Amino acid sequence: MNSARLRRLAAACAAGACCLAGRVALAESVGEVSTVWKLIGPNHKVVVEAYDDPRVEGVTCYVSRAKTGGIKGAVGIAEDLAEASIACRQVGPIHVREALPQQEEVFSERLSVLFKRLQVVRMVDAKRNVLVYLTYSDKLIEGSPKNSVTAVAVDRGTPIPLRR
User: Which domain holds residue 61?
Assistant: First the structure.
């Protein structure tokens, strides 16, 4: 393969990575509690992480979820449970950066090496001027019906712009 083709391939891969990175938010750790003591490796725990909505300034979502410890957890091959809870809150003046789709995945985090992801989807309830956030997990083969939902009411003086 010549160098021009390699550069084009590298640029395409970088562009693809940037597109994927837009859907994956970086979590800020808020805290954690140990649930099971492990002799070798980290303890099993429940972690609480904060995610700022990338398109809605002034909204932060707090997600709590189980994190597997032990040897598998230490080396990164453990499969975390498909259980999570979410609470999204207004943490400042709400400003919608651009028109929002009716429904959109805003956060995604890997729960196992290949197959399971925790997802947060934002839905717009235009009639009530409310942002609704749903968290659930999915697998390559089958998802989990375990989910949690929360809502952030937006002042009626600030209508939520919808992408049509």
Answer: 26-153
Asked whether the beta carbons of 119 and 110 are under 8 A apart, the reply is no
- 13 is a domain residue: no
**Residue 10 lies inside a defined structural domain of this protein:** no
pLDDT tens column, 1-35: 555 443 444 443 333 433 333 445 578 999 988 77
Residue 19 lies in a domain: no
As a whole number of angstroms, the distance between CA 62 and CA 83 comes to 14
Work out the burial of residue 135: count CB atoms within 10 Å of its CB; fewer than 13 is exposed, 13-18 middle, 19 or more buried.
buried
Hey, is 10 helix, strand or coil? helix
Q: Within the chain, which residues score under 50 in pLDDT? A: 4-23, 113
> The whole model's pTM is what?
0.73
